[in-house]
Amino acid sequence: MLAFGLAQAAHFAQAADALNGKSLYLNGPTSGGTTCAACHSASPANNVSNILAAANNPSVISAAFAANKGGMGALYNGKFSSAEIADLAAFIGNPNVTAAPAASVAPASLSFGGATVGQDSGALATTPFQHRLGGVEHRQHRAWRQPWRRLPAVRR
Fold first, then answer.
1. pLDDT tens series, the chain, 156 aa
2. Residue burial 25-35, b: 16+ Cβ < 10 Å; e: rest
3. Cα separation of 81 and 17, whole Å?
4. Are 90 and 56 in contact (CB under 8 A)?
5. Distance (Å, rounded) from C-alpha 13 to C-alpha 41?
6. DSSP label at 114?
């Protein structure tokens, strides 16, 4: 049982970051250079030059660099770390990835008045909000009244 838990922890510790892959794909290596989108289009979903073969498969990208397939080796060898290549593969496998919505509370700060540090103070109220992507819309969650319930998933 412990071995299974450690294996799961190792898997999640090495999980690829599709959002970082998206940034690398659209903006190029952090050290500068051509973007992947320049040859493969802005979305991997278009499958230009069979890029979907690399979906969640970093070894396909590494092999393309090593073989200088389409000139990629000349452009990218040594420009991406193995983690960044895994991130690129994760983005290619999930081209519609978006950032998680921001969360906030109202009011943004709490004032404890003249309370001395280390002493109890009266109860203060705050309300958690989860903002939707792309705008100022938000909805108030009722989970703060029922802490045993999980916050609902954001609709995308």
1. 444 444 444 444 457 999 999 999 999 999 999 999 999 999 999 999 999 999 999 999 999 999 999 999 999 999 999 999 999 999 999 999 988 777 776 667 767 667 777 777 777 676 666 555 444 444 444 444 444 445 555 555
2. beebbeeeeee
3. 13
4. yes
5. 31
6. T
